[in-house]
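Re: the pair you flagged

First of the two:
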Amino acid sequence: MKSPPAPPSWAAQAPEAEMRASVEKVRSATRAHSKFFEESLPLIASENLLSPYAKEMLISDLHSRYAEGLPGERYYEGNRWVDEIEVECLALARRLFRCNFADVRPISGTVANLAILKAMAETGSTVGSCRLADGAHISSASFGAFGLRGVKPVYYAFDTNRMQLDVDATKRILLQERPKLCLFGLSLFLFPFPLRELSETLKEIGALGWYDGAHVLGLIAGGQFQDPLHEGCTVLSASTHKTLPGPQHGIILGETSDPELTRKLQSACFPGVTSNHHLNAMAALSIALAEHLAFGEAYARQTVANARALGQALNDRGFDVLCADQGFTRSHTIAVRVEKEGGGEECSRRLVDAGIVTNKNMLPGDKSSKHPQGLRLGTPELTRLGMQEREMDRVAEILHQLLHQGKGVEAVRAEVRALKKDFTTLKFCFGAGEPAYRYYDLVGH
């Protein structure tokens, strides 16, 4: 009889010294990453900074624990204080958004979207949505959550000049297609949706309104955008780390008196699309919600003011900023067509070399997501650091010097560092004034 084969080589113990080198490589890269952002101008619309109290939650023992189920109904022991945290988190969410339902177990915005689809849409059913080319998120695509759930999109009519729904044409589409669930949400989110204008049509066809507020969640909570749960939508799903300066996590909110819908939503979250719900992030979310109740109105107002100021300053310098006749935006985001500057891919690479972090983005008329003609710029992070309208003018001038005047990358990089050096501590939170990018060096050497 043949002897059993020897275990594969990868099963052998790795040399400690070699693995220590790998650990130090990762730590060094992480410190370099933090240093880069500390000296850069982050203009990604979907990113923000955590407060020191929220960061503390992320490295707590909660990270190592499980808590499947609802408070008081867990499948694991040891959750006495987890239940206390989650009950407080739910109460803060309901208070901040003036709603009667919240679930903080989704671990991301896309997972929250999957839970909504599981609870509120049947496989093969139709769901109203915007097209990706009009700014929708990839979770509403056939290769995203829609495809995974097996639902068919019904696309609204979109006015690309106004970056807004064509209300009359959309009403006709809804009356003809009669979807039972209608999603309102964008990844390039410049203006509020005309929810009130569409609410009667939704009632007529028996459709529930669903709002993906991932990008504008903090603006909604701060009273600086629309209030979808009181303008015709039944549920709201979102990530919690964009204009709401929380951890990377998810949330579902609702205003409903239907106990069956509540049951379906809770069941969709667990056991539907999550098991353990990342307890450290849930605790960090609690901190972020409390901070937003204290500071969110001022933060949201300045975030929008900065976005509009940046749009105006870029427009004054010859950039093709979308929707100039509408004030550019009512949110944290502006969209800039940079075809004449070389396209979104080329411009974003030139900008990051100079320490300006943006992302290329499809705009109406684009055919390729890899080679679009647009840039998406956002103000959440710079506002979190205390920048105001005058700094937005300086940011616009720096972009102008690099992309229009041909100023060298190193010279522009020096200007970026000079501007940023006075804006590296957090505002609008408990623990304001703490360093934003180097708060924790866990080992200390």
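Second of the two:
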Amino acid sequence: MKKSLIALAVTFSLVAFSGCGKKEIAQHEKVTIDKGQVATKIAIGSNLDTLNLKDQFDKNGTINTSTKKAVFAFTKPTGHLVIEYLNTQGEDFLAKNNIQVIADVSRIPSIILNYVVLSDLQKSKYQILMFLDEKVSAEYRNEKNPDSIMVVTLDNLKVTGVSFVTSLDDFKKEIE
């Protein structure tokens, strides 16, 4: 009986929270910000905090002085778009281009995160850092563009520009 209830709970959670497929991103024009405050912890001309986060393999990863681009995905559709693109690249693409990818998984129920999302992410050939704390992720999220991929351009941790993209073509242009 207990196993049946657990199986039912997992099935319900999968349907309710993960969706039955990839949701599409509402397409918007690329937005580029080259001055001012972008999020609580991101401002053009200021240094980005050295972020130390866990990846999908529970290893430490960081945004540091060698990082040139930090790619933030705060929603399931933006995360899927990033992964779709990365799956077309070689294993060394992120390292070779000094790019870090950060996915916000803080709002995913732990049972879904542990049994579905992490197992999917662990199939990846690249490191994905994760926001596990919703308060921390909120400090990096831009409220005007919540459903876009946020690409932060860095020079020795100094934020030199931020772009918000929703299309695969715009994303490719931002990180290639």
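Strands lie at 31-33, 37-39, 42-43, 51-55, 60-63, 69-73, 99-104, 129-131, 149-155, 158-165.

-B.
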